[in-house]
Structure formats: structure tokens, C-alpha cells
Design goal:
Catalytic activity: Hydrolysis of terminal non-reducing beta-D-fructofuranoside residues in beta-D-fructofuranosides
Radius of gyration: 23 Å
Shape: globular
Protein name: Alkaline/neutral invertase
Order of helices and strands: EEHEEEHHEEHHHHHEHHEEHHHEH
Keywords: Carbohydrate metabolism, Glycosidase, Hydrolase
Strand order of the largest sheet: 8-9-10-11
Helix content: 25-40%
Distance between the termini: 36 Å
Strand content: 5-15%
Number of strands: 11
EC number: 3.2.1.26
Enzyme class: hydrolase
Length: about 475
């Protein structure tokens, strides 16, 4: 079994870990630190003027050169804070310490609901070599066959990681970022074919390997999609990793992690994989179904909004974190070019409100020209009947997918909300999205915490698009 074997090494060989691990893979990295004396400065926002097909030249990215200003950190992390709490509710973090550094201000007492939530979260923590490295996707003691829900998923751990960071417990997040980074470079194959270098795993599991009379060794066993349902590579894992890396620095004030040479290399590998030239004519990422959110068919093959919003956000985070060097200048230029292109593309072509719906009904079809209004050859009959009555007069949203002759008019919650968070949508569009969610609260929330998408497939459409998947209902 390919794995990460836990052993004791001297601190002279590996700095940064009190307990060091031997990683077997395509290449080896030494855990070291670098001090970046020079940082580039680009504004992390992409500003556009009125967006339409005739004014693409007016889409600007400001701050094309200079040195990046380190962002202001709200609150401080006291590295010397010690705690005597040993009641079992605290997670042991780096090196086995009981409590991680706390934010430098008094925290109100948790409510009963919050205490229960934290108890459940801490019970889901996974440890490797004595230190926490993440949380399992689901922790149901009654589930006799958990499949892969007992693994640490990158996308699933992000909200838990943010909760730990906001509570001042950074060690588990730091361990997670470093261990998943080491898994990035491994060679994984499906039927003798390997994915591109830089792919992050969808999940990993801590396994114990017996060695006869010797002490068993712990092994990190990653899944790059070769074991997933449908055998689909996780496109979103690397994007979430970059976003979480920046969140770690912003919340804790510890920028030394993102400045490490192996972390900088990991960022570049992910970006090179995403920015590789291909056959696609659009700035959005082309992905297959099941490559994000869940590894099941959801009818999102093509350019799903969720991936585009995460891609845009990861590009902005990377531009802020990348250290300036001769090798990164071209990459930063490519990031700037893609940011301006994808922001225009999403804001212009994915946006739907009453005005846009009326425009679609008046579209001409089969336009063969470079200045066609109906650039994707969308037929008006494709607009569903429920849409006109559902979209409020002052509301709107970003559609789920866009391909030639196809617009997916479903409302995908994560894609729309992340477009607001990352400033992918314009301020006016942000307001319209929130207005729609307020007006359609019963449809989007109802008795549920929050629906992934609306409306759901049913009957024949569900059978065709999901492949009659009984778990995808």
C-alpha cells in the first residue's frame, strides 16, 4: 500500500514538525521555511465597468505591478497563551499540546447548542502520529458500512477548519494543510492512466499497518478519485486548499506557512493544472459531472457555477500569496488575465433576471458571426415555465451552468453565495441574489437548513440526468 509512514526523525532533517513523517511519492519535500522579503502588490479585486459584449476592453485589473501589502489582521493570536483545561473536550494539536493559541479577547460562553456542536465536531477529529489532521465527513456510530464517509475530505473539512480558526485553534488546520500538500505529488493511476501533476486528493484515511512483533505504523492513504463512485477526479479540492490556506493566514496572522517553499510550489502546481491551455474557448473551467460537491451525477457537466466561483476565489487568493520571482511573474500575469476574463464571462452570461429572461425570449438563433447577440445559440423554448413566476422583479441569480445551446436555470446555493463572498458578482447582482433568497425563502430553505439547488429533478428528468441514482433524489 502506498502511504505516509509515521517515523521519528531528527529535527535537523525536517524543521517545522515535532513529530516528523516520511512521505513516499513522486518527489520528496523537506519541510522548511523561507522568508519572503519581497512581495508583489495587486489589489485583490477585479473592477469592471458596465459589462456587455461590446465593452470587454473596459474590464480592468488594477495594480499590475509593485509589492503586495500584507493585509491587516483583525484581532491577534497570543502565541504564549497556556490553558489548564484538560476535560477531554479540547483537541490535542501540534506536538500533542492540549489547547491551541486563543484569540486575544474574551469569548462569550457557548450556548447549549454550541456546546453540543463542538462536542460532535471534536468527536469527529482524526489523529495521525498523535496530532489532529482533520475531521471525518460523517460520524454515525450506527452506520455499519460507512463507505468513504469515515475519511477526511478536503471540501468537507473547510467549514470545520474555519470554526477551529475562529476559535483560535490553528494547529489542526496547519497540520491538515501540510499533510494534504504532501499527498499532492503522489502518483495515482486509474486503468494505467494518471491525472495531471498538482491534483489534490478528494480525501484521505489514516490506516494502521501491522509489522509482526514491531509497533504498527500509521499510513495516510489518499483517494484521488480512483476509489470514488464514478471514478471522478476532484477538481474543487485544490481550489478549497488554496482558499483555506489564505484564510489561515488572515485569521491567525501567521504568514510563515504560505511563505514556505513547498507551499509556494504546491500553489503553483494547482494553478498550472487549472490554467493549462486546452480545447476550451471560454475562460471558465471545463469539468465533468461529479467532480465537485458530491461524486454523483447532478447534470452539471460543463462549466458549473460552483467551480467557477471557487476558481475565481482561488486565483485571487493565489495572487496575494505568491512570492514574486522570475518563475512566478508569468504565472501572476496569467492569473490577472484569467481573472478579468472570467469575471466578465460570469457576470454577463450567467446572470438571469427579468430583463435577461425577456432578452432570451427575443433571441435570434443560428447566428453565424463574431458579433452575435445569442453567442451560445440558446433557444427561447429552453426557458422553463416556472422561471417567469419564480424570479422576483428586483431579484436575480447566477445560473448553474452554461454551454453551447444549454443554460441550466437551477439555482445553486453554494455557487451564488460564494460569488458574493469572492466579489465575482457585481454589487448590484449581489443585492439581487440576496433579494431573491429573501423572497423565495420557503423554496430555498423551507424545513431544511439550506437546499443545495432548486428546483430538484423529478420523474423522467431525474431518471435521465442522474442515471436513476436512488441516493441522488
Amino acid at each position: 500500500m502506498i502511504g505516509v509512514r509515521c517515523r521519528e526523525y531528527s529535527s535537523e532533517k525536517f524543521r517545522g514538525f515535532s513529530r516528523c513523517c516520511h512521505y513516499v511519492g513522486r518527489r520528496d519535500f523537506l519541510i522548511g521555511r523561507i522568508a519572503c522579503n519581497v512581495r508583489h502588490h495587486h489589489k485583490t479585486s477585479v473592477e469592471t465597468s458596465h459589462v456587455n459584449g461590446k465593452e470587454f476592453e473596459r474590464v480592468l485589473v488594477h495594480g499590475s505591478g509593485g509589492v503586495n501589502v500584507r493585509p491587516i489582521v483583525v484581532g491577534t493570536v497570543d502565541e504564549n497563551v497556556e490553558t489548564s483545561e484538560t476535560n477531554g473536550d479540547r483537541v490535542k494539536l501540534e506536538g500533542g499540546n492540549v489547547e491551541e493559541d486563543g484569540i486575544g479577547k474574551e469569548r462569550r460562553e457557548d450556548s447549549d447548542v454550541e456546546k453540543e456542536a463542538w462536542r460532535l465536531l471534536r468527536n469527529a477529529v482524526v489523529k495521525y502520529c498523535g496530532s489532529p489532521v482533520g475531521t471525518v465527513a460523517a460520524n454515525d456510530p450506527n452506520d455499519k458500512q460507512p463507505l468513504n464517509y469515515d475519511q477526511v475530505f478536503i471540501r468537507d473539512f473547510v467549514p470545520a477548519a474555519l470554526a477551529f480558526l475562529l476559535r483560535g485553534e490553528k494547529g489542526i488546520v496547519k497540520n491538515f494543510l501540510l499533510h494534504t500538500l504532501q499527498l499532492q505529488s503522489w502518483e495515482k493511476t486509474v486503468d494505467c492512466y494518471s491525472p495531471g501533476q498538482g491534483l489534490m486528493p478528494a480525501s484521505f484515511k489514516v490506516r494502521t499497518i501491522p509489522h509482526g512483533g514491531e509497533q504498527p505504523e500509521e499510513v495516510l492513504d489518499p483517494d484521488f478519485g480512483e476509489s470514488a463512485i464514478g471514478r471522478v477526479a476532484p477538481v474543487d479540492s485544490g481550489l478549497w486548499w488554496i482558499i483555506l490556506l489564505r484564510a489561515y493566514g488572515k485569521i491567525t496572522g501567521d504568514y510563515s506557512l504560505q511563505e514556505r517553499i513547498e507551499v509556494q510550489t504546491g500553489i503553483r502546481l494547482i494553478l498550472n493544472l487549472c490554467l493549462t491551455d486546452g480545447f476550451d474557448m471560454f475562460p471558465s473551467l471545463l469539468v465533468t459531472d461529479g467532480s465537485c460537491m458530491i461524486d454523483r451525477r447532478m447534470g452539471i457537466h460543463g462549466h458549473p457555477l460552483e467551480i467557477q466561483a471557487l476558481f475565481y476565489s482561488a486565483l485571487r487568493c493565489s495572487r496575494e500569496m505568491l512570492a514574486v520571482s522570475d518563475g512566478s511573474k508569468k504565472l501572476i500575469t496569467a492569473i490577472n488575465n484569467r481573472l478579468s476574463a472570467i469575471s466578465f464571462h460570469i457576470r454577463e452570461y450567467y446572470w438571469v433576471d427579468m430583463k435577461k429572461i425577456n432578452e432570451i425570449y427575443r433571441y435570434k438563433t443560428e447566428e453565424y458571426s463574431t458579433d452575435a447577440t445569442n453567442k451560445f445559440n440558446i433557444y427561447p423554448e429552453q426557458v422553463p415555465h416556472w422561471l417567469m413566476e419564480w424570479v422576483p422583479e428586483e431579484g436575480g441569480y447566477l445560473i448553474g451552468n452554461l454551454q453551447p445551446a444549454h443554460m441550466d436555470f437551477r439555482f445553486f446555493t453554494l455557487g451564488n453565495l460564494w460569488s458574493i463572498i469572492s466579489s465575482l458578482a457585481t454589487p448590484k447582482q449581489n443585492e439581487a441574489i440576496l433579494k431573491l433568497m429573501e423572497d423565495k425563502w420557503d423554496d430555498l430553505v423551507g424545513q431544511m437548513p439550506l437546499k443545495i439547488c432548486y428546483p430538484a429533478f423529478d420523474r423522467e428528468r431525474w431518471r435521465i440526468i442522474t442515471g436513476s441514482d436512488p441516493k441522488n433524489t
